[in-house]
């Protein structure tokens, strides 16, 4: 992964949301800002431009001058606190942005003679607030614009992007979905509760809430819960998975996340085998033909 810094723009008046604190609005139990911060957790420095608010991980806070001066002024304020060759720039209202898109942008920005890369949405529109910029040309053009106009306040982002050679990246169609209205918020909340995505969303939310960086095979745990519920008793399912987690934590204390994931898999394997043996004994004791 390319070393990079991140700037998250979390200001703005949110007029179409009636002045609500948009970055603090929750989708899937997590604030929009925290969801964005999760996809750039490996940034060297993360700068959030906007009013201070609680976040799940520490960030560097700053404000544009004057406050409410617009995204270009906010970007200018944020870039002063970055030093990396690549700068990831995101708005704080992207509920479906994933790490895969961030990786694609970093890769595209770091190859060839491009001065950065930006997400291109399914309608063919470029998204300058879902982008990676090379640090030197970004700082150069911001300084030139500030000199030419006397200030970055109120200037449109297109003045910046027009001067940079940015590679378009066709990412996940939902990567650039942003929440400008209450209808957008409702749509995002409904989407993450769909059958095909709700479990992954919930597991991600729990891991972020608990500060866990652990990739495990959830199918293994679900199979364990099923076998415990079916072969022993329904309440055995949550209790068994809890004990598996506890055993894995004890076995992997002080070890790498990979070792922790392997400890979960091994504990789940043992507990599953036990549940199947338990069920086998029960079936044997009932005898053939017993209802």
Give the tags.
291 residues, alpha/beta, Spore Coat Polysaccharide Biosynthesis Protein SpsA, Chain A, 45% helix, elongated, transferase, Nucleotide-diphossugar_trans, Molybde_CF_guanTrfase, magnesium, DUF6457
How many DSSP-defined strands? 9
Mean pLDDT across the residues is 88
Physical arrangement of strands within the biggest beta sheet? 5-4-1-6-8-7-9
Give Rg in angstroms: 24 Å
Structural class: alpha/beta
Spatial gap, N to C terminus: 58 Å
Beta-strand residue percentage? 5-15%
CATH architecture of the largest domain: Alpha-Beta Complex
Number of self-contained structural domains: 2
Shape: elongated
CATH T-level topology of the largest domain: Spore Coat Polysaccharide Biosynthesis Protein SpsA, Chain A
Under CATH, the homologous superfamily of the largest domain reads Spore Coat Polysaccharide Biosynthesis Protein SpsA, Chain A
Annotation field: number of helices:
10
The helicity comes to: 40-55%
Low-confidence stretches: none
CATH first level of the largest domain: Alpha Beta
Protein name: Molybdopterin-guanine dinucleotide biosynthesis protein A
Keywords: Cytoplasm, GTP-binding, Magnesium, Metal-binding, Molybdenum cofactor biosynthesis, Nucleotide-binding, Transferase
Domain DUF6457: 195-282
Domain MobA-like NTP transferase: 6-150
Structure notes:
This protein is α/β, with parallel strands linked by helices and 291 residues long. It folds into 2 domains: 4-192, Spore Coat Polysaccharide Biosynthesis Protein SpsA, Chain A (Alpha-Beta Complex); 214-286. It is 45% helix and 14% strand. It has helices at residues 32-39, 71-79, 99-109, 135-149, 158-161, 182-192, 198-210, 218-231, 236-251, 257-286, and strands at 4-9, 26-27, 30-31, 46-49, 60-62, 86-91, 116-120, 126-134, 166-169. The protein has a 7-stranded mixed sheet, with helices on both faces. Strands 2-3 form a two-stranded antiparallel sheet. The longest helix has 30 residues, at 257-286. The chain is elongated and about 85 Å long. The N and C termini lie far apart (58 Å). The model has no long low-confidence stretch (mean pLDDT 88). Residues 195-282 form the DUF6457 domain. Pfam families: DUF6457 (PF20058), NTP_transf_3 (PF12804). It comes from Streptomyces clavifer. InterPro entries: DUF6457, MobA-like_NTP_Trfase, Molybde_CF_guanTrfase, Nucleotide-diphossugar_trans. Residues 6-150 form the MobA-like NTP transferase domain.
